[in-house]
TrEMBL record:
Keywords: Covalent protein-DNA linkage, DNA damage, DNA-binding, Hydrolase, Lyase, Protease
InterPro entries: SRAP, SRAP-like
Top-rank taxon, per record: Bacteria
Record carries keyword Electron transport: no
Single GO molecular function: lyase activity
Phylogenetic placement of the source organism: Bacteria, Bacillati, Actinomycetota, Actinomycetes, Micrococcales
Family per similarity comment: Belongs to the SOS response-associated peptidase family.
EC annotation from Swiss-Prot or TrEMBL: 3.4.-.-
The protein's name in its UniProt record: Abasic site processing protein
One BP annotation, GO: protein-DNA covalent cross-linking repair
Keyword Metal-binding (UniProt): no
Length: 242
């Protein structure tokens, strides 16, 4: 799984690398982002003229499907199992037509040890960002929900944009930390995953092929202090190795 994110670096640096045409994401340096926080997503969406543009947008972490009657449902949907997302009512619509990539600097997982839970930080080797496969949704906000979300950047248009991160069985050394890990992509795979013309069958096939070819050596990890376990804690010291 993936339940805490490090957003120390601005993903706007990826605009040239990934051919992003438009960005409305405003970076805020954070080292301890929990579900319900704001994350960046990369999507390919048609504009008013039908021309597909690659966009970097803010989203609330935790998927809220269009049929949801309560925005809090997103707190239970910050991760989606890649093996079943295509068929689960919560995720199947987004899996078929609204796939995203969530670019983050790193993420944290915890290992149970003799002295309690030890947090580890996972990061890309040779690159500043991890590219996590995800799904996104739009939810029209009524007056009450608009008050609830307040100044949330993910809801500035009267629609809440939300996202979930896909997970798969952990591989290689990452299995020593947790049984699950995010579905992580290379920069070259971003366009194929978010292609709006690809259907659910093509996305499912992509995931099967990717799982078989993923190299866990592209991910590094090191232990960090236990302070990251409290969502109230912030600052670069949370990402220092111990």
């Amino acid at each position: 799984m993936c339940g805490r994110i490090n957003m120390a670096l601005d993903p706007s640096d990826l605009i040239d690398e990934l051919g992003i045409d438009h960005s409305s994401y405003e970076h805020r340096e954070r080292y301890n982002v929990p579900p319900g926080g704001t994350v960046p997503i990369i999507v390919d969406r048609p504009d008013s003229d039908g021309l597909v543009q690659r966009r970097l947008e803010p989203a609330r972490w935790g998927l809220v499907p269009g049929w949801a009657k309560d925005l809090k449902i997103g707190y239970r949907a910050f991760n989606a199992r890649s093996e079943s997302a295509r068929s689960k009512p919560m995720f199947r619509s987004a899996f078929a037509r609204q796939r995203a990539v969530v670019p983050v600097h790193a993420y944290y997982e915890w290992v149970e040890g003799p002295q309690g839970k030890q947090p580890w930080m996972m990061h890309a080797v040779g690159h500043d960002h991890l590219f996590m496969a995800g799904l996104f949704e739009f939810k029209k906000l009524n007056e009450e929900w608009s008050r609830d979300v307040g100044m949330d950047a993910a809801a500035s248009s009267g629609w809440l944009v939300s996202a979930t991160i896909l997970t798969q069985q952990a591989q290689g050394h990452l299995a020593e930390v947790h049984a699950r890990m995010p579905v992580m992509l290379s920069g070259e795979q971003v366009g194929e995953w978010i292609d709006p013309t690809a259907d659910a069958g093509a996305a499912d096939e992509f995931l099967s092929l990717h799982s078989a070819s993923f190299d866990p050596r592209t991910i590094g990890r090191y232990a960090v202090g236990t302070a990251v376990g409290n969502v109230r804690n912030e600052g670069p010291e949370l990402a220092q190795p111990v």
